[in-house]
Amino acid sequence: MPLPPENGTPLHVATSITEPYCSPHSHVIRLPGIWLATLIANSLMIIEASLVSEPVRESVMATKRRPAFNPQAFLAKVGEGRSIANYGKDQTIFSQGDTANAVFYIQKGKVKVTVVSEQGKEAVVAILDANEFFGEACLAGQSQRITTATAMVDSLIMHLDKAAVVRVIHHEPAFSEMFISHLLGRTIRVEADLVDQLFNSSEKRLARLLLLLANFGKEGKPEPIIAKISQETLAEMIGTTRSRVSFFMNKFRKLGLIEYDGSIEAGIQVHSSLLNLVLHEQPEIRTNPVPPEERT
């Protein structure tokens, strides 16, 4: 035990670093081991915090400075895994049987997607406009193309490597939202096409197709004049013959539902009154099956 001071003043031992340093005239004695250990520990904590927090601070500041991801800007510029090419009218973008390793995005133009059977019969699966994707089946494991994509007019197409699309889907929610919206819209369209094919007459199928080609029911204003398209293509899309298409097109024109001069390949003007033909007597989906005895 330490000795008391000579003047008889009681000895006070400081064990807290909050107490002041002792002066030569003070009777406060600080335990050097505890104080020094505490000081070193605090110093190390401060140094460690400064070394760790600086990169974190820089990372946070970098995150704050990072501009918001713009899917349209991403799809408009060449970059890692992205390239842009011009395709002339009737030029093939990819063919049935090709390796499927990329997704395509239409910046400008119009693309026809077709499939050919083993017997050589061709069918048009879809006609796509600007701001639409195609070839996305490669993301679901499709290794070979089952369709052929052809530019219907001079088109500007972006080629996106599969890996680049997967990467941006994983890291950019804005792009993921845009791409999922596209997939849902495509699924809804395919389902509607199937119902149309199963239940509607070829006349109604043609009317619906003309309205879709003129962008009725889509965002933005309808296009009053459909770009050049042949009767053969229309027949392939609705599953009928060219002669039937010609018959119905003449009927629509006489009724004032559409207008065109000479050949329809020069352009077709579609009127909103054509909607009445499609909306009339839509196929009814029964919630309660009709008993067999009531069926005719």
Keywords:
3 domains, 4-stranded antiparallel sheet, Arc Repressor Mutant, subunit A, single chain, 19% strand, alpha+beta, 296 residues, Jelly Rolls
Provide structural commentary.
By secondary structure, the chain is α+β, with helices and mostly antiparallel strands. The chain has three domains: 12-65; 71-199, Sandwich (Jelly Rolls), CATH 2.60.120.10; 200-283, Arc Repressor Mutant, subunit A (Orthogonal Bundle). 39% of the residues lie in helices and 19% in strands. A hairpin with an 8-residue loop joins strand 12 (258-259) and strand 13. Helix 3 (162-171) packs across helix 4 (173-199) and helix 5 (202-213) crosses helix 6 (231-238). The model is unreliable at 9-32 and 46-60 (pLDDT under 50).
Cα-based radius of gyration, to the nearest Å: 37 Å
* Structural domains: how many: 3
The number of helical segments is 8
**Biggest β-sheet, characterized?**
4 strands, antiparallel
Lateral strand order in the biggest sheet: 3-10-5-8
- The ordered string of helix (H) and strand (E) elements is EEHHEEEEEEEEHHHEHHEEH
Range of helix content? 25-40%
Shape: globular
